[in-house]
Amino acid sequence: MKKLVLSIFAVAAMATASMAQTAPVENPNAADFKFDTEVHDFGSIKEGVQAEHTFKFTNTGKEPLVITNVQASCGCTTPTWSKEPIKPGAQGSVTAIYNSKGRPGNFNKAVTVTSNAKTAQKVLFIKGNVEAAAAAESAMPVKQDVATPSENK
Length: 153
Known about the structure:
The protein has one helix and eight strands, in the order H-E-E-E-E-E-E-E-E. By secondary structure, the protein is mostly beta strands.
């Protein structure tokens, strides 16, 4: 009976071990990118400005680099990127445009780049300070004193 229980246990252990996931083998020739900079500070900008920065990178791998998606951390930032595969040694870019309208104060936004590179996701950052626009003249019309017919007599 002991041998039967031990045999069942051994078979179950081997079945579990055979189903265990193995770590994927890293491709030594895979594409990879090296950005000139991964953080851009706009400094102080005026409210309403469309602040734009282009992050440039080089494919340092041995296979073409394909960017499959670029996602900004919020709707105030719009990314664009190189859509064609970037050959080894060639350059590509990711541009982030920050809409500062109605957003006075400090900002720090992330732009996540997803690709077939060795590091599948790379996060870039833009930051700065939006100076509030000067207080606009009141949008409400100011009531002016108008003489009434009884005052004109």
